[in-house]
Amino acid sequence: MRRALGLAAFAAALTPVLGAAFGYNSGAQKPGGVKNRLDYENEFRAAKALEGAPAGGFTSVRLFTMLQDENAGNNPIEAIPAAIATNMRLLLGLWASAGSAKFDRELEALVTAVNRYGDAFTRLVDGISIGSEDLYRNSDAVEEGSNPGANPQVIVGYIQKVRQRLSSTKLKAPIGHVDTWTAWVNGSNAAVVGACDWIGMDAYPYWQSTALPNNAIEQSPRLFQDALDKTRAASQGRPVWITETGHPVSGRTWGQSVASVENAKRYWHEVGCPRFGREPIWWYKFQGDQAGDQPNFGITPPGQLTSKPLFDISCKPPGSSSPVPIPVSTGRPGAGGPPTASSSSASTSSGARNSPRSDVSSPPSVTTTNSAILLSGTISATSSTATNSPMLLNGTVSATSSSPATNTNGAVLTAGSIGGVWAALLAVVFAV
Ligand SMILES: *[C@@H]1O[C@H](CO)[C@@H](O)[C@H](O)[C@H]1NC(C)=O
Ligand SMILES: *[C@@H]1O[C@H](CO)[C@@H](O)[C@H](O)[C@H]1NC(C)=O
């Protein structure tokens, strides 16, 4: 037995790349209501069996809220028991743009979940995001009153509050915040960076209609890398996790970026494949929405759940016809990367320990929960993987993120008066 473990550890040490979290964003809503435990279980099973996916399927899911019912009670989101039942890892999210009373309910729901489910839950947590795009929505770029966010001081206060509240519990997961890359590069938000163990970047070249020379699909790899580089430069040494990115399979053209299955496939292969398994990433998104002319980012169609993607998602090396296997992580997120699939044998798993912090980070994406959702009280989501705090302190933690609730209304999206990237981002928020 001892020898077997030793060999496993040795093999792990030789593995060049740790399995970083390979996840997707999951909102709390479904057409006509909020998802319940069965909905989440069915979704997680389908996502884990995604045909042709690196590592065999998604292994982590990003949530946007801890509350099952935004309007009443502190019941934890039912994605948690569903994740336990399906061994899905979690990048938890606490909604932070609806005032402190609502935030306190998010926190109580999290503590309730820890007490109720114990280690079966905490071992699955890749990270905890305090908020989602609150700084983006707080910026001048977003129309006043149309889309409430939260200012940096508020987010820093929430982060401190969560750290203190969780310190007496068994949940030891890295705490961060998710925002658009444009919010991270804004120096006025530096205090939030300083309060985080990791920072989550949302980036969507599709929405960057003012990018130069343009945002046509062939510019996407460069635009994404640029957003990631700038976010890392502003990260004060924190790991950067890619918490949202993707390209729509259908919907209107934005700037010069065309929404199509062909372009979504190209984006997956050119932006996603080089990073899957190497950097923590939560794709936007697994199942599509009935979106009308709004962009639909799903790699599987709306309606009946399926594990069959709309295009070939197997990652192949250049000039080869064989898919590249992605290591499935089996340990806690290590220094290098966020979450990985299974859990506890932290020591063997991740090469993360040997990775520079910079390897941990990854690109952005725009997440969104839209205020519409908020207003309607439908946001939800959660979870994270835990890496232990010591790792965090050393800057080695990795993990992942969260995402906003899916929203059902696309109607409001239009940000006609806003303009440029911001408009695009805003639109995303709404659209999603
Ligand atoms: C930069 O961040 C501050 C604080 O969040 C915000 O008030 C301001 O509008 C942001 N600037 C831009 C250009 O978005
Ligand atoms: C990790 O962090 C702990 C706590 O801050 C510190 O004592 C230890 O020296 C750090 N280890 C490394 C390798 O930085």
TrEMBL record:
Its main location: other. Its EC number is 3.2.1.39. Residues 317-368 have a biased composition (Low complexity). GO terms for biological process: cell wall organization. Residues 293-368 are annotated as: Disordered. Belongs to the glycosyl hydrolase 17 family. This is glucan endo-1,3-beta-D-glucosidase.
